[in-house]
Every structure is written in C-alpha cells, then in structure tokens.
Design goal:
The protein is mainly beta. The protein has 1 helix and 27 strands. The two termini are about 30 Å apart.
Length: about 300
C-alpha cells in the first residue's frame, strides 16, 4: 500500500458518492512533465492511454503494461481533445490546423472536417463519436486567441458552435447558443448530449456550466437546460459513467454529478484538471489530466464505451 499523494483525496458531499469509492484506493500520479494536459483517450486493445500536451505540441502515450510514457505524435498540430470511435480509431481535435482528424488503423491521417460552409473552424476543442458514426465536436476560439496553444488568427465563422459531422461527411451546426463550447459527452443511452460552456474564461459573468440537450434520432438537439453550475473554476472536459453520473474537470479536481445534476462529491487534485476518461480493461479506472501531470484512481463505477 502507499500513502495518499499530497493534495489529493475525496470530498463526499452526498453519501451516494461513497458508493463510487474503493475504501483504500488512492489517487496516483502516473507521470508529470507536461504544460497543459488535455484530451485523454483509452485504447483497450493496446492497453495504453493517449493524451495531449497542447502547448508542447505533442500527444503522449502512457503504457499500462509497464507504466512508461513516450511521445506518440510530435508535432501534433497542438492537438486538444481526443476520443476513440466505434472501430477503435483515434479521433483528434487539432488547434493549429483547425480541424478534426481520424488516425486510421494503418497510421495514415484522414481529415474528418476542417471547415463549415467554406470557412475554417476556430480551433476544435473536444470530440465524441456517436454509435451511428456521427462525430460531434466543439469549436471555441482558444486556439486562435494567442500563439500559446495554436496560432493567433481571426475567426472566420465569427462564433463558437457545436458541430455534428454526419456519417456521410456533411457538417452542420448542432448548437449555436454557446459562448465557448468545450467538453461534451453523451448519456449512456445517447438520449442526451452534455456540453460544457467555459464562456466565463473571457467574458465576465459568462457561463461556467454544463448544459443537457435531448438528441433526436436524426441528430437534432432540443432542450439545452443548465445541468450543473461549476463551483470551482470552469468545467472543461468530462465523461459519463454507466449509471449516468457526470465526472467533470474543475479547478480543484474532478466533480461528480448525479444524473439529476446534484454535485455528490469530488476527487481532489492539486492542479487544475482539464479532462478525464475511463480506462483499463473494465473501464473502472478514471484517468485525470491535471495541468502538468497524469493522475489515475480506481473506482467502483465503470465508464461507457467509446471512451
Ligand atoms: Mg477542452
């Protein structure tokens, strides 16, 4: 056994959260040395996790078999969010090249989308693939506001939307009423799409919440009510477990919200958290991207696939 890492721990707000925790399990720091960790994605067949170190222009790879970390891709076009599609392929948001790509099984890269109605995207941030093969991503302006995690440029679209790429490649606006749409994930049955808005980062009093939309079979969204307000910093990326709880990034760690939106507990991390994903063969280990470091903790709950 090992002791608790400084600054880590659990905050139980509702007894329901205790049921998510393993009594003796502790948060581990698996690696450190990044500038801004984002976009974790678990590759079950290879037993590895990929994640982005955006300012360092690289995607890193943590290997479950020996705990080693190597550089998977550099330059990465300042890659941000990553996910895995239903065929096990990597799907990546790239700030610098302002596009969403898929890495094929043979290693070649296919552009899924790089513009809407002839205009380049701002800087795709986070992405999820639905079971029908549609690719949903957010397009805030963080990658074009300055040169730190992309390249300064004007917005061609002039707004920050949520986009859906249909299985036939058609790109459409899925939601246009966001300030800075960011993380996104489906409920386990895909009846709901959750989307974070980090508008407060550049707009005083702006949104710092996750909204919930109902998803029609044709991909149309309705509803969009606020699901949860962030009580520490901003919600960036997040994932949903099999019972529909939302495990989301925040300034003080990972916040866990019940399916009805209640904040039931926190996994405390001593750095800003930008994103999380479930991994391991049983998807019962939560991987946490915390600024300079990759953390992980085993839970009693399981993530949904794709991750
Ligand atoms: Mg993000």
């Amino acid at each position: 056994m090992f002791g608790a890492l400084d600054g880590t721990g659990f905050e139980v707000i509702d007894p329901e959260f205790e049921g998510c925790l393993i009594g003796h399990a502790r948060v581990e720091r698996l690696w450190t040395g990044a500038r801004w960790s984002e976009g974790p994605a678990w590759f079950a067949a290879g037993r590895y996790l990929l994640w982005s170190d955006i300012p360092n222009n690289r995607i890193l790879r943590w290997d479950e078999t020996d705990g080693s970390v190597s550089v998977f891709r550099q330059p990465s076009n300042n890659a941000n969010g990553n996910t895995v599609d239903r065929q096990g392929r990597l799907v990546t948001c790239e700030h610098l090249s302002r596009r969403v790509t898929r890495t094929e099984h043979d290693g070649t890269i296919t552009v899924i989308a790089d513009r809407f109605e002839g205009k380049r995207f701002n800087s795709p941030n986070d992405v999820v693939v639905a079971s029908d093969g549609s690719v949903w991503f957010t397009d805030p302006s963080y990658g074009i506001l300055m040169d730190y995690e992309g390249e300064r440029a004007e917005s061609e679209i002039g707004a920050c939307h949520v986009f859906r790429v249909a299985p036939d490649g058609t790109v459409a606006i899925a939601a246009s009423d966001y300030v800075k749409p960011n993380g996104l994930a489906f409920s386990p049955d895909e009846q709901f799409l959750y989307v974070a808005d980090t508008g407060a980062s550049h707009l005083k009093g702006g949104p710092r919440h996750i909204r919930r939309h109902r998803v029609a079979p044709n991909g149309a969204l309705s509803g969009g009510e606020v699901f949860a307000e962030c009580t520490a910093g901003l919600f960036d990326g997040f994932r949903v477990d099999r019972e529909g709880r939302v495990w989301t990034s925040a300034a003080d760690g990972v916040h866990c919200h019940a399916p009805d939106g209640r904040l039931i507990g926190k996994v405390l991390i001593p750095e800003f958290v930008a994103n999380v994903c479930f991994g391991g063969a049983k998807l019962n280990r939560l991987f946490i991207c915390g600024t300079t470091s990759l953390y992980a903790v085993y839970l009693t709950v399981n993530g949904v696939s794709p991750v």
